[in-house]
Amino acid sequence: MGERAAEIGGCAEGLVCATPTAVQEDGEALERERDAARSVGIDVQETEHTELPFEPFGALVLPEQAQVQPMSVLGALARQLRERGGKIVEGCRVHDADVGPPSASLTIHTSAGSLTAEHCVLATGTPILDRSLFFAKVEPSRSYVSAHRLLDRSPPQGMYVSVGTPSRSLRTATGFDGEQLLIVGGPSEVVGRANDTTKRIRELDRWTAEQFGNVRRITWWAAQDYRMHSRIPFAGAMPRGGGRIFAATGYNKWGMTNAVAAALAISGEILGGNMEWAKVLREGCMRVSGVTDALAANVEVAKYLVTGWASAEVARESKATAPAEGEGIVVSDGLSPVALSQVDGKVCRLSAVCTHLGGVLRWNTAERSWDCPLHGSRFAADGRLLEGPAVNDLPEAD
Ligand code: FES
Known about the structure:
Layout: H1 3-8, E1 9-18, H2 24-39, E2 45-47, E3 58-68, H3 70-83, E4 94-98, E5 106-110, E6 113-117, E7 120-122, E8 138-150, E9 159-162, E10 169-174, E11 180-190, H4 198-212, E12 215-228, E13 234-237, E14 245-249, H5 255-271, H6 279-283, H7 291-314, E15 328-332, E16 337-343, E17 346-351, E18 362-364, E19 369-371, E20 378-380, E21 385-387
Parallel strand pairs: 1-9, 7-14
Antiparallel strand pairs: 1-3, 2-3, 4-5, 5-6, 8-11, 8-12, 9-10, 10-11, 13-14, 15-16, 16-17, 18-19, 19-20, 20-21
Bound molecules: FE2/S2 (inorganic) cluster.
């Protein structure tokens, strides 16, 4: 690895493996991974022996994979941007962009005022501008991850991802005091559709203890990802953006690599380059193969839209309606759904209607947030927007 790479991470083996509970289909999935890798010249090796505390059903090894610390990568990118005269503005939210006539600059509207630009790249998870209906082409999911101290052994040094279910990935990380921690990635679900997200954390705890024995969880978190219904990430000019508004989305948990590909593809398009491989990122989301999935997903979205309003209507608000600490409920004030929550003793009474397109929000028990089951927007218990495609906070209930 070069000096720059050494600054942000290390080198490890990457392994795709089938866990001990694997079934026939998982073995076949592993074979497909092997064949796909070899068909593009990646020299994967099959093995049944790993450093894991259990014998996997089978495994593929990719030698010399880079294991990077994402925050170090981010720091290095920010430093390089500033060295080249770029400016990073934080704490300011983009709400909209006007294209105007072809010869004019774009006008970008933000929470701190408007500015003009020649080009705009939306790298916001799901694109925040609705002009190309991206919110209907991606499925938002949250996946739960935990960091554990292993009390009786050292963490495995390779990076592992399983095929089949339950889905698991393993990494190492260095804790604050220099100790090696095991990072366990696991279950994911469509944003806003789970009844109890805390059970996902319990599930990770249980699996880690079963496999690694005496462990102590240090922390956990969740990450939000987007998958295009076509299964191919998008990076290119947005429809109705005058060829000057670009977006990148649908990395499907492979953001460390897909984001780099998207950046190369979009910068090439802006600067007039012609990279043949980038065509699939521009056009892949139009593929017919994704249409059936998109239709099914949007039928599901419509179902949540209807049931959200109907169930809020049933639960009428009364003076006695008060959620317990850490809980949130949706009730009706007779006119529209109201989100009631109590976090750290603070009771909030907000509109339960998503500021994007009117979905009725649901309480995320683990993260204590209001999540939208339609397109994945999220709001803190006090109404602050956490995640788009919405661009506005939740207002207080009338
Ligand atoms: S995110 Fe689209 S309606 Fe909530």
